[in-house]
Write a structure and sequence with these properties.
Order of helices and strands: HHHHHHEHEHEHEHEEEHHEEHEHE
Number of strands: 11
Number of helices: 14
CATH class of the largest domain: Mainly Alpha
Shape: elongated
Radius of gyration: 29 Å
Helix content: 40-55%
Structural class: alpha/beta
CATH topology of the largest domain: Four Helix Bundle (Hemerythrin (Met), subunit A)
Distance between the termini: 25 Å
Length: 451
């Protein structure tokens, strides 16, 4: 954990200390409570500066910093509510505000809308901390037995002003999040209606597992209707699903394949498609090409996405002793064994994956020596349990967690390997450990990121 994050963590850890000092009900304890609160305010300024200066701005830090401010402010206000020196109604309103904003942000996330935080949210937190400071100063004044009415009046005015500002900023943030959410929906629907007819044909694979789902078939039909394009179904009983497709697409420059991952990978190897602009509609029941189309099960979501959710993909060309193959992702090692063992699928994709993983861990080899050349550069990976290379922005959680966003058309190859530098008997355990590390965004042994 970097210095900036430790400073933010300090603000959370001093919460119980300040609360304890308040309950001591002595001038000395309150004095130190005020000092600690002032240090917390200063630390909020310092940690942001340190993070930028040391180039340590992280996802954890971007969450921890505002969270520390909020938990400190609300936690101390709760202490004063329990002591009867702060209004429970006002405190409840602050909680209500956070609840409403969380709901709108959750809805926005489900709809894939970005609603950025604005200045009023941060100012509201600062106003809450100012309330706490005012309440601490009032209690300190009482226990210190000072007799300066002007000073007490000033503190009271300061506290009341902070309360009014906190309420105002809370109201503004509620209005902002609600309006931004509804405006985002409106703009998306408006853009989604601006679709022009394209010279495009969709070839759908009825053998894809997801095709059995009535809802997904309906989405495909809606997509074709919105785009005003031809929808054709590939033959079910032919070994080569694309046999004869060259006649269907002869005069059409744009071809879209509707099916699972295998359908698209097969299309990349079908020579008549090499001169076409090739696209993919994820119809499978568990796609590496993460499908925005199914989330939310709302047709307006479908209608409005396609105008700007389509992306360009680089294609990897893999060459080995048996020839060449085009692909967008390649997995070698024990993970490819999992894929092989889960080919016989049911309608329960996740349970299929778990069963195949268990079989692979028990039976499959996990010690490979990979030697490859990428763009002329030789790469040797010895005692490697798994290697994954990818170009799909939504594929490979482990890759994305360590390398960040995978840019789909930047000419780069992204990858992740699990390499054990100890005895081969620990390879499978190391692979499991690597999965856990990737969840927490930790690049440690046995993981090696590649770009």
């Amino acid at each position: 954990m970097n210095i900036a994050n430790l400073i933010a963590l300090f603000r959370i850890l001093i919460l119980p200390v300040i609360a304890y000092l308040i309950y001591q009900e002595t001038a000395t304890a309150l004095f130190w409570a005020i000092i600690l609160l002032i240090l917390a305010i200063i630390s909020d300024i310092v940690d942001g500066y340190v993070a930028r200066k040391r180039n340590e701005v992280t996802k954890i830090g971007s969450f921890l910093d505002p969270f520390a401010d909020k938990i400190l402010a609300l936690g101390l206000l709760l202490v004063f509510v329990l002591r009867g020196t702060f209004s429970a109604w006002i405190f409840s309103f602050f909680i209500f505000r956070d609840f409403i904003v969380a709901i709108f942000r959750w809805f926005a996330s489900n709809e894939d809308l970005h609603v950025a935080e604005k200045w009023h949210g941060q100012l509201m937190v600062y106003a809450k901390i100012a309330i706490v400071l005012g309440l601490l100063l009032e209690e300190f004044y009482v226990y210190q037995n000072w007799f300066n009415d002007n000073f007490l009046i000033f503190i009271n005015l300061f506290t009341v002003l902070a309360i009014l500002l906190a309420i105002l900023f809370a109201l503004l943030s509620i209005i902002y999040y609600s309006v931004s959410y509804w405006q985002g929906l409106y703009r998306r629907k408006k853009v989604g209606k601006q679709l022009e007819k394209e010279d495009l044909i969709i070839l759908a694979n009825r053998r894809a597992r997801g095709y059995k789902n009535k809802y997904r078939r309906r989405l495909l039909e809606v997509f074709a209707k919105r785009r005003k394009v031809t929808l054709r179904y590939l033959p079910k009983n032919q070994k080569d699903m694309f046999s004869g497709s060259n006649q269907l697409v002869k005069k059409t420059p744009h071809v879209m394949i509707a099916g699972g991952d295998g359908s698209f990978e097969s299309a990349l190897s079908y020579k008549p498609f090499h001169q076409k602009s090739l696209g993919f509609f994820p119809l499978g029941a568990g796609n590496a090409y993460y499908s925005y189309f199914y989330r939310g099960k709302r047709f307006e979501y479908l209608r409005s996405r396609f105008n700007f959710r389509e992306i360009n993909l680089d294609i990897l060309e893999i060459e080995w002793e048996k020839g060449k193959k085009q692909t967008t992702f390649l997995t070698l090692g024990i993970d490819s064994e999992v894929a092989r063992l889960s080919q016989e699928r049911t309608q329960h994709g996740f349970s299929d994956y778990i069963r195949a993983s268990a079989k692979a861990l028990m039976r499959s080899k996990a010690d490979y020596d990979f030697k490859c050349k990428i763009n002329g550069k030789k790469l040797s990976l010895d005692n490697c349990s798994n290697l994954t290379l990818a170009k799909i922005p939504y594929y490979g959680y482990g890759i994305r967690s360590l390398l960040g966003e995978i840019k789909s058309d930047d000419g780069q190859v992204y990858g992740l390997a699990a390499i054990n530098t100890h005895s081969i008997i620990f390879n499978k355990a190391a692979r499991l450990w690597g999965l856990i590390l990737s969840i927490f965004n930790l690049e440690k042994h046995p993981l090696l990121k590649l770009k």
